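Lab notes, practical 5.
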Amino acid sequence: MRDMLGREDAIPVHEAQRLLFEHISVREPSTTVRILIEKAYQRVLSENIYSSEDLPAFSRSTVDGYAVISADTFGATEGLPAYLNITGDILMGEEPRFIVKRGAAAKIATGGMLPGGSDAVVMFEHTQQVDGGLIEVLKPAAPGENVISAGEDIKKGEMVLARGSTLRPQDIAALAALGITLVDVYAEPRVSIISTGDEIVPAESPLKPGQVRDVNSYNLFGLTMECGAVPVKKGLFKDSYDAIRDVVRESIEDSDMVIITGGSSVGTKDMTHSIIDSLGSPGVLFHGVALKPGKPTIGGVIGGKPVFGLPGHPAAVTVCFELFVRPVIRRLTGATENISLNTRRSVHARIAKNISSGSGREEHVRVSIEERGGELWAVPVLGKSGLIRTLVKAAGVVVLPSHVRGIQEGDTVEVILF
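Output from the prediction step:
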């Protein structure tokens, strides 16, 4: 069945996502690079990382207090304390040159190396000094209490990070702790961005009647970078079949993905669909998704490389990118974690207004977030999908499934954050 514009019925979002992943093979990127860990944030590891040492390399205190033999403190109370002689003071960054013997204790700071003989640390708060060389222990310490043992964090030979992991700040910190300052990562995929339309002019250009400045390529550039890919702007192109076909063909050859904005709706100047089909198989996988905004979206594959035709409206571009483009880019980076179709952060909030939906499409409502009386509220940012202001004011979107007629003010909703 076709709609009033001659298109086949739009397919559900989940079906469009399935088609994309069915036709994009899972493979490791072929190129790797070795880089400093300072430059490796959000990059994807191309190797397994194993520890060459124990971490920590020595048992150390987690509090300021006294290193003790735990058995000397058993049964200690405020009314009947244990008495211990202070036999040393452990200096930070140095190995103690003495052993704690029964009935003795050594002053130690957080991070200090536990001296031989001791197996626990009593916090200062649980002691009382009698004189310069004697303390009362007011609370017993169990073996290993307030101590990180050698190798307790990471053991020598243990795999710390797996190939395909996206390196987070805490992962980089772990590498530094192990003395690893160079890592092998996959080369970032290249994503070509092509803007089309007779009415589109560069952002720096003064406007003539009927013209609009290019905004989508800037939006897509940033979104692509956030995914761990290298965006490549191919420029602005008039609605010329040959010109657009040539730049798409070139982009297929020198990129891992192609995004075309504009020209995805049905009309006299709609060429994206036929251009994709003309350049290789399987070509267009879907044209039209039961989605608001973003119904005219095109998804295709040419020679194993994904190609998207996104609508020209800024809000639709962002919604479609998050639903279709982002998860595909994550797969192209070599990431093995978080490549499911829904990987964005979200919060729960109460909706601030009634929202109706009778479109029969999955609707993505832009919302801002406010705190009221200790609760989060999602405030709909109303406006057409062609308004960039709605994206600027929004913190994320609330998704209304196609079968839902609406939501009532005060209902709890999930806000998927931008």
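Observations recorded by the TA: The longest strand covers residues 362-372. DSSP finds seven helices and 28 strands in the chain.
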